[in-house]
Design goal:
Helices cover about 65% and strands about 0% of the residues. The chain is an all-alpha fold. α2 (about 20-25) packs across α3. The two termini are about 25 Å apart.
Amino acid sequence: MSKSIGNKIKTLRKGRGLTQFQFADKMDCSRGTIANYETGRRCPSFAEIRRMSEFFGVSVDYFGVETVDETFELLSRARAVLTNNDIPKEEREQIYRELMKIYLEME
């Protein structure tokens, strides 16, 4: 899913004639973040998709995300925590173990 979202972000950005640097400035993030979205290495959170949809004047549905897609939001938040190098590795590993424990206890 993130690859198609990335392609759509890139198409919209280029349609406006913006560089990754310029778009990142508008979204108050780094150029690397935009590049990661566009290549599918990272997936924007629902809040970020909402901001982009407002900026480009499209609905969030354009990105293939329903407005109440709780699974997408949950996965975006989990990914943000698990890839955040500001959080000590041991703490991220503990969070991962807890998530896996919850998953394995499901019926």
